[in-house]
Amino acid sequence: MKNKDFIWGSASAAYQIEGAAFTYGKGKSIWDEYSSVSGNTFKNTTGEVAIDFYHRYEEDIKLMAEMGLEAYRFSVSWPRILPKGYGEVNKEGVEFYHKVIDELLKYNIEPILTIYHWDLPQHLQDLYGGFESREIVNHFNEYCKVLFEEYGSKVKYFVTLNEQNIFTTLGYLLKLHPPKVCDMQRFVNANHYANLANAMAIKTYKEMNLGGMIGPSFAYSPKYAFSNNPIDVIAMEDAQELTDFFWLDVYVYGKYPKSALAILEKEGISVPFMEGDLELLESARPDFMGLNYYQSMSIKSPHSSGGEDVDFSKNSAIGKKEETLYDKYFIQVTNNYLDVTDWNWTIDPMGLDVSLRRINSRYNIPVLITENGLGAFDKLNSDNTINDSYRITYLKEHIKAIENAMEHGVCVLGYCTWSFQDLFSWLNGYQKRYGFVYVDRDEESEKELKRYKKDSFYWYKEVISNNGLKDE
Ligand code: BG6
Questions:
Q1: pLDDT for 1
Q2: How far is CA 466 from CA 33, 391, 446, in A?
Q3: Which atom from ligand 1 is nearest to the alpha carbon of 166?
């Protein structure tokens, strides 16, 4: 990388790694509840033990240090800090994250702290429907203040909400995440309150003058028109308005895109605005845009011909695709120019370049890549090696795309791969592996949860020490 301050990192999330789900004073989260209901996750797997990071964080961070990792993005579990979501603080929980952060700092690994990665306290869901109530905004702010006060002097990068677009879409439209609802109005409500919670957190952080940076992480899948038939292009525009700008514009400009609002209005859906909302949204421009990039999407009009529907049954182990209002405006089809992963996600490194350029030209904001990686079935060989050359190829091509975008003027602060260790995939159990470190467990048994370095571990170590790819 031409930029010598570029950060080479990797990422994870609390529910996917920690375990210790019902111990050490932690309250129940909506994912503890959701994964306990049969049929909601692959083979009914849960994060109850996950990869036991809670007890093994020293071992894992030592591996990060051995790799030379410069930053580690992890999330804090809200109910571990505030078991009910507000009120009494669980000191053991607060202490745990101090220990994790101190251990990272001991090895000069920059902690990137995600405040919310989907594990809402169940109590708030029971009390008022979680994100469906405006009350969430103040409770989220109370939680953020605890984190800023406790960790703000040590942590220089905070990520507010991880993939608000995913947890609202999967939770309130596609019935794939809690609370497993398909209702456009409820989706828009929950999303609006999440927007306010995000803005309030940013505002609070800035008022505290802690000197670091804060921003949300967005799951961006750039949209391509399936053909140059203008009705496909219009469908792609609608898809962008409704599923990209609908969040990004609010984050950066504090405004919903007009065209998305017009579509919603036509469908009888409204954003539950109250006095003061707009001012709050406009007052909270993030310092960076967190970008989680996995794939691009090819879009066509439901009224044009050609194109093959994407087979969603392979997309996550849970399968089916719920009908939504979006289907009236656009549909996703396969892209015959691109390969796909075992879970039918397109593999499109150039799409990362496209994403970075589009974000840069519409928003002119620094980007921190907070996730990118390949989920695959890795095999542990009898000599304890794991030959994941496909992951190396995948990451290498994506790094080239970042370099290219930077040469075209995009400001990229750093790159966090998903993930450092193998971990629990929300809907795909433990078989879908993303890490540089293989964790020997599966859906049936936790075994001994031993850690083994994959080939990609040694490769990324080289990348970090060279500050980029070697010229080939
Ligand atoms: C992102 C999430 O959407 O994608 C992660 O932030 C998640 O938590 C990752 O694990 C990969 O998704 P999946 O479904 O393959 O585990």
A1: 73
A2: 44, 19, 36
A3: 3
